[in-house]
From TrEMBL:
May be involved in recombinational repair of damaged DNA. Pfam families: SMC_N (PF02463). One of its GO terms (cellular component) is bacterial nucleoid. GO terms for molecular function: ATP binding. This is DNA repair protein RecN. Residues 7-517 form the RecF/RecN/SMC N-terminal domain. GO terms for biological process: DNA recombination; DNA repair; SOS response. The keyword Nucleotide-binding applies. Belongs to the RecN family. It comes from the Bacteria. NCBIfam families: recN. It comes from Cryobacterium serini. Keywords: ATP-binding, DNA damage, DNA repair, Nucleotide-binding.
Length: 570
């Protein structure tokens, strides 16, 4: 349950703390005082979309905080811990701020968290009903949801199985339809891929081959120049086979070594130089040998080899120009293209497999949908009977609620059932759909009756009703107040109301009080007791909080509510 709600700079509320606690809390106040901001604050704490327009004028941000008392071993506590938050014993604190620019921050158990986490906690903490929910009750989806909630865990489990099969069926069917529709296109793609892969395999390019061939072509294209240069260099280095005995590097180094060697004994500085010249002679001799080897390796038939290289380069160039990434992309395409071709060539097998899977899932969906229908039909009878009994306690003694189930045109994510709630306002009248014929007051009471009945099978710790009594007055309003008080015996109930007949049954009465200094309106919240509560009740009844007759009527209502409370506890 919500133990306390704190609001700052939200709407017209400057700062207020609402002590809530267990049982039935009524929130009243003058029009424009900000009663609705209480529901807005709860909505923010439960993940509603942040609206910068709710920030109090002239303030940088609004802030709301709620203190809940929950079971530390509950699913809510586990979700809080998953989000990085924690509890203080059984106490959970949720917070939300909204800046005037529209930015929002959420706090869960003392840690920052996405607002979506608040939304995850919503269904396990609070059910909020406002006038928009009364309108929503007219929709087929809301009526089906109400029936499913009443049907309980058995239907919820089966609906989960159905939805799993339904989504799988739909996914397989989409893939199957795509394969069949694109069969010709995919066949053409396979033919084009096969031709491209055959061309690459025929050319059989190797990584780095184009660069290597470029180097060979450069060498072969300058073969004669290379031979002449190498021969000249070899002759200059070592001319031992030169008939003219022209001086060369090897001979010159040997002459230098002998010249120094003759006098080396006379100076200790010369032997190292003699050794260095001797080593240089060895190095130059090696170079001469390598030049001879290089000359021997020059291909005598270089022209033919160059032709072969140029032909190969042309072949590779034609292939490379077909791919933006050149030859490397063509080589890589062998793997990716082969994988894609394998996928396309297996279309027939895939179509056959998907057809079998889709048909099996269609049959499973059909069977599960039929089981859902059976559960819904059984629950529909009970829901109608129990809500009808509740309507009798809400000053609609002759009203009957009927739950009608028809087969829809096709399967959906919730089955094949179309659920309609029909209201027969009195005996002999034609039942009419809530979507078309129910008044606002009737909708208010039907919605309350449904929530009371559903709470018996799908309990919720806290109910929040925003003017559920709209369009209701007199005896009907008293019965709504009485029923809310009974609901509050097993759940926390918070009601924003403008009717004294409803507020009288609350064990905790809060008043949103409006003050004005001529420019800025601010509201605060007071807990009403004794004469203050009687005065507020009189204001709700007649608009005259100081009226003697109004005060008498207010005290009479409070006595009636207290008598009901005493009787219900016996």
């Amino acid at each position: 349950m919500i133990d306390e709600l704190f609001i700052r700079d939200l709407g017209v509320i400057a700062e207020a703390t609402l002590p809530l606690g267990p049982g039935f809390t009524a929130v009243t106040g003058e029009t424009g005082a900000g009663k609705t901001m209480v529901v807005t604050a709860l909505g923010l704490l439960l993940g509603d979309r942040a609206d910068a327009g709710t920030v109090r004028q002239g303030q940088p941000q609004s802030f709301v905080q709620g203190r809940w008392v929950i079971d530390p071993a509950s699913a809510v506590a586990d979700r809080v811990r998953d989000a990085g938050g924690d509890l203080d014993g059984p106490e959970l604190i949720l917070g939300r701020s909204v800046s005037s620019e529209g930015r929002s921050r959420a706090m869960v158990g003392g840690r920052g968290a996405p607002a979506s986490v608040l939304g995850d906690l919503r269904n396990d903490l609070v059910v909020v009903h406002g006038q928009s929910d009364q309108v929503r009750l007219r929709s087929a989806a809301a009526q089906r949801d109400a029936l499913d909630r009443f049907a309980g865990p058995e239907l919820a489990a089966m609906l989960g199985d159905y939805q799993h099969a339904f989504h799988r069926w739909q996914a397989n069917q989409v893939d199957l339809d795509r394969l069949i529709t694109e069969r010709d296109l995919r066949a053409r793609e396979a033919d084009e891929l096969r031709a491209a892969l055959t061309e690459i395999e025929t050319v059989a390019p190797q990584p780095g081959e184009d660069a290597e061939l470029g180097e060979r072509a450069e060498r072969l294209g300058n073969l004669e120049e290379l031979r002449l240069a190498a021969e000249q260099a070899r002759q200059l280095v070592s001319a031992e086979d030169n008939p003219d005995n022209a001086p060369d590097v090897v001979a010159l180094l040997e002459a230098a070594r002998r010249a120094l060697d003759r006098v080396a004994a006379h100076d200790v500085a010369l032997p190292p130089l003699v050794a260095a010249i001797s080593n240089a002679g060895f190095v130059v001799a090696d170079i001469a040998a390598e030049l001879s080897s290089y000359l021997a390796g020059l291909d005598a038939d270089g022209a033919r080899e160059l032709e072969i290289v140029q032909e190969r380069r042309a072949e590779l160039g034609i292939l490379a120009r077909k791919y933006p990434g050149g030859l490397e992309e063509a080589i890589g395409f062998l793997d990716s293209g082969s994988a894609r071709l394998l996928e396309l060539d297996s279309d027939s097998d895939r179509i056959e497999q998907l057809s079998a899977e889709a048909e099996a899932d269609r049959k499973l969906v059909t069977d599960l949908a039929a089981a859902l229908t059976a559960l819904r039909r059984a629950a529909a009878v009970q829901l109608g009977v129990r809500v009808t009994a509740e309507l009798g306690a809400l000053a609609m003694p002759d009203a009957v609620l009927l739950v009608e189930i028809e087969a829809g045109p096709e399967f959906s994510v919730t089955g094949i059932d179309l659920v309609r709630l029909l209201l027969q306002p009195h005996a002999g009248a034609e039942p009419r759909a809530l979507a078309r014929g129910a008044s606002g007051g009737e909708l208010s009471r039907v919605m309350l009756a449904i929530e009371v009945v559903i709470n018996a099978t799908d309990p919720v710790p806290t109910f929040v009703f925003d003017e559920i009594d709209a369009g209701v007055g007199g005896a009907a309003a008293i019965e709504i107040g009485r029923r809310l008080a009974r609901l509050a015996e097993t759940a926390q109930v918070i009601v924003v109301t403008h009717l004294a007949q409803v507020a009288a049954f609350a064990g905790n009465h809060l008043s949103v009080v409006k003050d004005s200094d001529g420019s800025v309106t601010a509201s605060s919240v007071r807990q009403l007791l004794g004469d203050d509560r009687a005065a507020e009740m009189a204001r709700l009844l007649s608009g005259l909080p100081d009226s003697k007759s109004g005060l008498e009527h207010a005290r009479e209502l409070l006595d009636l509510a207290q008598s009901h409370s005493r009787l219900s506890k016996k």
